[in-house]
Amino acid sequence: MPAFSLLDxxxxxxxxxxxxxLKLTAVYKCxxxxxxxxxxxxxxxxxxxxxxxxxxxxxxxNRGRACVKGLSIIEQIYHPDRLRYPMKRAGKRGEGxxxxxxxxxxISLIAEKMNSLIDTYGPECISSLTGTGxxxxxxxxxxSNAIGTPNASSAxxxxxxxxxxxxxxxxxxxxGGVDYYGSVRPxxxxxxxxxxxxxxxDGELQWFIKDAVKxxxxxxVVDPMPTELALKAKIWLxxxxxxxGALALCIINLLIREDLVDHDFIDxxxxxxxxxxxxxxxxxxxxxxxxxxIPADQIIEAARWIGSTKPLGxxxxxxxxxxxxxMDTSRAIHMIPAITGNYDxxxxxxxxxxxxxxxxxxxxxxxQDKKDIALTEGHAYLIQDSIAHPWNVLEAARTGKPYKIRGxxxxxxxxxxxxxxxxxxxxxxxxxDFLVCMDxxxxxxxxxxxxxxPAAMWPEVDCVFAxxxxxxxxxxxxxxxxxxxxxxxxxxxxxxxxxxxxWNFGYHDQREMMEEQIKIMKERRPELAGYxxxxxxxxxxxxxxRTYYNYKKNGFRTPSGKYEFASCVMKRYGLDxxxxxxxxxxxxxxxxxTGEEYPLILITGGRQQSYFLTAYRQIRPLRDREPYxxxxxxxxxxxxxxxKEGSWVWIENEKGRITxxxxxxxxxxxxxxxxxxxxxxxxxxxxxxxxxESNVNILTFLDGEHDGYxxxxxxxxxxxxxxxxxxxxxxxxxEKWKADNKE
Length: 743
Hints:
Layout: E1 12-17, E2 22-31, E3 40-46, E4 49-55, H1 68-71, H2 73-77, E5 87-89, E6 98-100, H3 103-121, E7 126-130, H4 140-147, E8 152-154, H5 162-171, E9 176-178, E10 188-192, H6 196-199, H7 204-215, E11 219-222, E12 235-237, H8 244-257, H9 263-269, E13 270-271, H10 273-280, H11 285-292, H12 296-308, E14 312-316, H13 326-339, E15 349-351, H14 368-371, H15 380-385, H16 390-399, E16 407-411, H17 415-418, H18 422-429, E17 434-439, E18 451-454, E19 463-467, E20 474-478, H19 490-501, H20 510-524, H21 533-539, E21 541-542, H22 550-554, E22 563-564, H23 568-572, E23 600-606, H24 620-625, E24 630-633, H25 635-640, E25 648-653, E26 656-664, E27 672-676, E28 718-724, H26 730-740
Parallel strand pairs: 7-8, 7-16, 10-11, 10-14, 11-12, 13-22, 16-17, 17-18, 23-27, 24-26
Antiparallel strand pairs: 1-2, 2-3, 3-4, 5-6, 5-18, 9-15, 19-20, 20-21, 23-28, 24-27, 25-26, 25-28
Helix pairs in contact: 3-19, 5-13, 8-11, 8-12, 8-13, 16-18
């Protein structure tokens, strides 16, 4: 037998003879979903086990690079604490006692219990709650439609990416991003409320922006924090948290006043400019300087740089989305590239190409009488997309008003850590009759379930997905290359459950769903007509050539066919068609009486490069890099409150208190502290896993004021106080856990 031979099966298969036996090794191309990005990997599988994961040099987005989350996939898959088989609760809810069961038993139990609730109380008593955008997300609403419930909900969509995408849809009809890898390089990039060099939820963004900075492309950063990018920026606007919308409208006002706008684009391709001009006149430099805390001369400098830089890209984050001004702020920021002639131009802010659908057409659209009783709280976006507001869903579980939520599916979401007002979330989940959670590991949320299901990780998933957010457009393939334990994909679970329960999911298997996606892709992009699903799997990706100025040929996907400064969609729902800004609830400006008790401004969304949202705290290579949550503050602020660098600190407000480790940043404003997000402690064990020790969502607000369109809630620009926590046991506990689990 030769040393190796290539077998024709779409990927390279290598056979070689060891001293003991014949081994079979295969190398596959597969897109990482360690976040919801699309970095291509070469995965080496030997005798059914993943033994090597290398970022592919052919990857159109990552180009041979990957972050630590993707590089640790082998540790994730084979971690001893990973869920590998279904379990049902064997004790009281939240007690942490479990009994192993088969998939057949799990699906039968779920189908029987959910159908019993539906028969007694109607399908609306069932809700579903999902988290971040991964392979399962397009099919989550499909499951709810199959059940007949209008109460599919999202823990993150209202405060992360959702406002940006819906703002773009209202303005232009399509989302977009920076044209990083076109033939024309950006002349400059605005980075607003984001730190993609560290925290990009779509991991390839860190390479995009780092490459741009290395090339010397100037950037403007809007951020209260002295981030890595802020310190390298040509212009850094250190804004007061929660005031981004006022700044955006002021910049538009200055661009109009100083005639730094693109008249051809405005005159021929937009509507509502004169109304916008009148609205923005209210946001003078002096007024907005007082609101934002940014010196007037810096705002003027920024506006002039924006107006004179060609082409100009825009990178946006979730900071301004996590507020009650989310939609209007997102719309105003989105207008800046348009008004300056940088919209869908080479090197500028380019539209997504829609090479493939994010999901598939939904079967059995809900009847209007079911839509009318959805727990949307009247928010236009939620009504429009038939999404229930998480506050209303959880309150309905707790209070039974207007009707009781009794059953719930939670997929890809650690609700107690990721959703605002964590204590309220736990109280409400405890009131459910039946809860099903599907995840990779036991979490504080899964611990409250009646049935826990083991979810597949990305090398165990067959999937087709598009990356529509960025300038370099691609369709990527995930393919199942290994099987771990009894883990299944969410889609497999949905299909099997619907088959057992008698609900119409619409597809019989995942292959059928993927073939439908490829069919729709070909209809949208005729030049890709020759591609098949197997072609995509073999290559790993398809990257059509980017086109520009698409609006000149096709118009905009808005009711008017033009870019809408005054939105027809907003007007249709009885909302102001023009963006505006108001002081959020609970700040020092409108709640000065609480300033003495809670004298500091709290930012709550800080990310760490080693983690994606609430995931990976048990993965040793990642946890060793960043073992603890950090609360950042100015050294002078720390000194004022008797806090030493590296010591543990209590952060407290009216919702409760948490503890994190003090870290100093001299560039921070003295009245601001910033807590990192997503923390729980797997080493703390059951029950609870330390869910309430450092979890910043103990301090955030799901109740109270919401954004009028999106339903976004208050997670930033809060009030707090800090003081030392000398008796914290977290560090000692982690060190003991490391000693007991030496690698």
